[in-house]
Design a protein that fits this description.
globular; mainly alpha
Length: 342
């Protein structure tokens, strides 16, 4: 038995078996890597995001609120706290004398107030005093002075502004004594009327509410003048000059240009002087003390009389709460006017 010659599987000289088809040698193929899938938007954000330390929103909020905390505490102590306590006292029968402890009476004080003719008279006089001295007097006179001072010379502006502001910065009691000396029977006003050969009268007895209204106008006009002076300075001169060129007179320029452009200043001024006038006490008390016969007794004086002269703290506090409601209603009206666009 002869061994068959073995052939190497590789090599150029080796013969292939006739039964096998001829094949060419194939080079080795490199292993193909699977192409990476493009990261989605969420994957990219996840990969690009860096690990951060856990945030602490509560300490950060407290840190930002630290500068405001003292102001909030003061408002709670000296504003919100007394108002809340007065709101409670208004529903009790607390008295200064002759009572061991107060008791809750509900709306009895408010029903008593609306059935009291003296209270209704005080409400009417408060409205008259506010309309005459604030809405008409201070507002109109302040606007007129501000517009006149726009065209006046510098010495005249300085003199007028000094006189008006001096009346404003005087203490209320001092201003009350000065106006009392002006309106009394032997006062300055009657002396001027005698010099003009006009009939004189006792203004503090015949027309006390008008006397105290004019006194408040004299004292408070400076604030309105300063507000309107600042507002008028913001009106571009090109607009008024163009109106003058077009032939618009002074009243037409004021009605169609000046007043619409200072509308927000008018609303702000009306709100501030109304709230200030509603709380006027010392000026009227020094001049008339609400008399004679309650002819100049506004709500602050009526509240003081009921609470401290008649010792009815609960009833007087209820009147004060109603006065606060009246001031809030005025504020809401003015704020709605301020929110409207010009």
């Amino acid at each position: 038995m002869t061994a068959e010659p073995q052939h190497s599987a590789a090599g150029p000289g080796n013969a292939e078996s006739p039964s096998d088809p001829p094949t060419s040698p194939q080079p080795p193929q490199p292993a193909q890597a699977t192409p990476p899938t493009p990261p989605t938007r969420r994957t990219r954000r996840t990969r690009s995001a860096r690990p951060t330390a856990p945030t602490a929103p509560l300490p950060r909020t407290l840190t930002r609120a630290l500068p405001v905390i003292p102001a909030v505490v003061l408002l709670l102590l000296f504003l919100a706290g007394p108002i809340a306590y007065c709101a409670y006292i208004a529903f009790t029968d607390l008295q200064l004398t002759g009572q061991a402890e107060e008791s809750f009476v509900g709306f009895y004080n408010f029903r008593t107030a609306f059935g009291d003719e003296a209270f209704l008279n005080a409400v009417w006089l408060t409205l008259v005093f506010t309309v005459i001295s604030a809405l008409i007097g201070q507002n109109t006179l302040g606007l007129g002075l501000a517009m006149l001072m726009q065209r006046a010379s510098k010495p005249l502006r300085t003199l007028t502004g000094g006189i008006v502001i001096t009346a404003w910065v005087l203490p209320e009691v001092v201003a009350g004594f000065l106006l009392y000396a002006f309106f009394r029977r032997e006062g300055t006003l009657n002396a001027i009327l005698d010099w003009l050969h006009l009939p004189a009268q006792n203004w503090l007895f015949t027309l006390p509410i008008l006397a105290v209204s004019f006194a408040n106008v004299w004292r408070g006009t400076a604030f309105s003048m300063l507000v309107y002076s600042a507002a008028l300075n913001e009106i571009p001169r090109e607009i008024t000059e163009a109106a003058e060129v077009d032939g618009a007179g002074g009243w037409r320029r004021m009605w169609h240009i000046t007043l619409p452009m200072i509308r927000r200043s008018i609303g702000t001024n009306l709100m501030l002087i109304t709230l200030q006038t509603l709380s006027v006490f010392g000026l009227i008390w020094v001049m008339t003390r609400g008399g004679p016969g309650g002819k100049s007794q506004t709500l602050p004086l009526f509240m003081y009389e009921e609470a401290f002269q008649k010792s009815m703290i609960g009833y007087g506090t209820a009147v004060a709460l109603l006065l606060l409601v009246v001031g809030s209603l005025f504020s809401v009206v003015y704020l709605r006017l301020l929110r409207t666009e010009v």
